DNA sequence: CGACAGTTTGAAGCGGCTCAATCGGGGTGG
DNA sequence: CCACCCCGATTGAGCCGCTTCAAACTGTCG
């Protein structure tokens, strides 16, 4: 029963029924991972891993001991797209407690060989991730600490809204201030002050592992948040209804909510 | 005759002979583009474009008028991977005069349908680009202006060394200081000072549209440059000889040099 | 109760920005 | 052939965002 996996891949271009059937037949391994544990090590043998619960992050550690967080993953995200055909070039860790489902590299290879449309979907997944990365690059290079932080919070919420994990303007986000700092290219101290100012402006609060949005419109405006950058790319031949930002995808919501 | 295109895609996993044959039969349009002109507009209809001569760059322009350069492309690079199945999310422009070769979206679609291994190769090309982006993110977030600049120069040289366009420690790089600034997330003034200090330290010089490396080892050390991050991903089932940084790929060199 | 991890707050310093002026080269029109 | 202009490189001065260092505070766990 890999309802979750099918729904997650389906976002990137409607899968044919025969692909769904094949995916259904594949043995799937479920694993629970504690906060802070490594999910994918750099260079690890490739598999197809789906984050089914929790929040994870990708990071690159520098020689000097510092690190840059390269992105966050929320339920419904595939974790090792960057290393599907080869070893991963970065590390993926659990931010909070996570649950993942994975299928072996061998199975993936068989599936892909049998169903080129699956490969196309995975390819679109990779392109979607690359697009999110570009948005981060813009933020790191050209946005102020405040806008950058606001943007991150918008992204975290919008991602989890799709799978209906975010509700009533709140969603899980078990990050330390130093984690947020390493994601935004800031110091932990300054990150704290920025978060503080966001709270005082009545925009959003990060506390006790939870993100609370007080004023979505205000936050999005400050961030110049573009939800388009998060939308999964799909097969252009198929018509997929566009949803406004922060609104759940029915299929994903049913699977993950 | 699409020798260049075949060699370029071949980097991302050896193509079967039948794929090569098909690529050979495809009509290819050659276009020359003046410096500064747009090659790919955001949302443009997808095609498969190869940069055969010159240097191009990807950029995202901000509401406030600023911009972030997201990456550079050198001969042998595919230009609209991010929009292969859908519209591009960013702009690609010619930095200096460029020559591109392209095949229509329709042709691409046919080729991909007929040859899944081609799709796999393109997928690896996308993943390779995503990896380069991650390296930029690390730089923008966590490296000093000096290291970041050094890193960029290393990347520009190493990319063009593969296709033997870079030789004798020099290669084309027709960027204004303001271009470099927008790539590194710096101001033009500060970029100038950093370049100046690199020159005075005897490491590298950017002048008259050309990059000259005076001390590769010193520059690479300052940059903590990792050539691994640029290496094209290829099919893990195939054995491809690893080449040290800055050394030409024989096939690419023959095609582009 | 102390030990520890993470948050909070203050103060000082620096990297990089902004503003502003000058310099240099290539093109253009007189 | 020269005067002019324009764009980009260059240089200086002052400022601000963010960093670093340091200390106090809070909650949690043994």
TrEMBL record, chains A, B:
> Which Gene3D superfamilies does the record associate with it?
Jelly Rolls, Winged helix-like DNA-binding domain superfamily/Winged helix DNA-binding domain
Record's superkingdom? Answer: Bacteria
Signal peptide interval: none
CDD domains the UniProt entry points to: CAP_ED
Instruction: List UniProt keywords, sorted A-Z.
Output: DNA-binding, Transcription, Transcription regulation
Q: Which residues cross the membrane?
A: none
Name of this chain's protein: Crp/Fnr family transcriptional regulator
Q: Which organism is it from?
A: Caulobacter hibisci
Q: What is the lineage of its organism?
A: Bacteria, Pseudomonadati, Pseudomonadota, Alphaproteobacteria, Caulobacterales
């Amino acid at each position: 029963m890999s309802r979750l996996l099918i729904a997650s891949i389906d976002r990137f271009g409607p899968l044919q029924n025969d692909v769904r059937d094949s995916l259904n037949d594949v043995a799937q391994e479920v694993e629970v991972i504690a906060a802070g544990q490594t999910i994918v090590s750099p260079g690890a043998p490739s598999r197809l891993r789906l984050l089914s619960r929790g929040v994870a992050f990708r990071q690159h550690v520098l020689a000097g001991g510092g690190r840059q967080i390269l992105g966050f993953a929320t339920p419904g995200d595939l974790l090792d797209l960057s290393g599907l055909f080869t070893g991963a070039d970065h590390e993926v860790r659990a931010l909070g407690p996570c649950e993942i489902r994975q299928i072996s590299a061998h199975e993936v290879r068989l599936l892909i060989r049998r169903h080129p449309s699956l490969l196309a979907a995975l390819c679109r997944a990779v392109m979607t991730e690359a697009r999110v990365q570009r948005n981060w690059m813009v933020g790191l290079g050209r946005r102020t600490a405040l806008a950058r932080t606001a943007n991150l919070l918008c992204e975290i919420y919008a991602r989890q809204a799709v799978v209906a994990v975010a509700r009533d303007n709140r969603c899980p986000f078990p990050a330390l201030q130093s984690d947020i700092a390493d994601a935004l290219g800031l110091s932990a101290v300054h990150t704290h002050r920025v978060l503080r100012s966001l709270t005082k402006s009545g925009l959003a609060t990060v506390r006790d592992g939870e993100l609370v949005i007080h004023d979505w419109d205000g936050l999005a405006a400050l961030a110049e948040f573009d939800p388009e950058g998060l939308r999964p790319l799909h097969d252009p031949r198929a018509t997929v209804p566009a949803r406004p930002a922060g609104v759940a995808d029915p299929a994903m919501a049913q699977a993950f909510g």
